């Protein structure tokens, strides 16, 4: 394991791999720890409670922002000093990122939706961050970029491949295929397939090209997209929600119970 992270025993190689690994582990551990804590608060375990200053409830996103700032600035200072300290600053940044992403829905909606349906967005954000970091950790690079033009056949070829992959990724995301688009940034075949397939019925692409308000409506494609959504997408979403709530706790509880929630 150590040989994989510190290949060639060079500062560049270690600085590229070990800090990213520490960020990855810290992100996962901090997120799981945070969710355990808030679920204990929600269960009214007496030795766990919210953090407040006077009558002001302090959300843990505040601590996350502070830790991200400390970890980010420390990383800038320590990156050329020591791999160990650089990795430590990356871990601090990872803890802060977990705290911020765990309340991503609050930042998105500008209101406390932690245990509401909209609160699942926070779990999605953490899953995306973990998946993206994991793909980087195993050596994949966005849009097939490897860090050198020669690896892609010269500067012109490299730029052409990057632009084509980016276009396909944007189209895939506009078609509402979020996971295909994000994974496809690292594994391009996903965006090629996603861009060619039908859009999801609620996506911007479907609204622009399939719906009744489109310049040239395509009711058959919209009907086919709706059929696919009901037959294939909704069962997958139910499984995803089950996994989310296994990890993060059940959402959509009565409003009277939401008032007793966590930090």
Automatic annotation (TrEMBL):
Keywords: Membrane, Transmembrane, Transmembrane helix. The keyword RNA-binding does not apply. The chain crosses the membrane at residues 20-38, 58-78, 85-110, 122-140, 152-172, 178-199. It comes from the Bacteria. The keyword Membrane applies. This is Membrane protein.
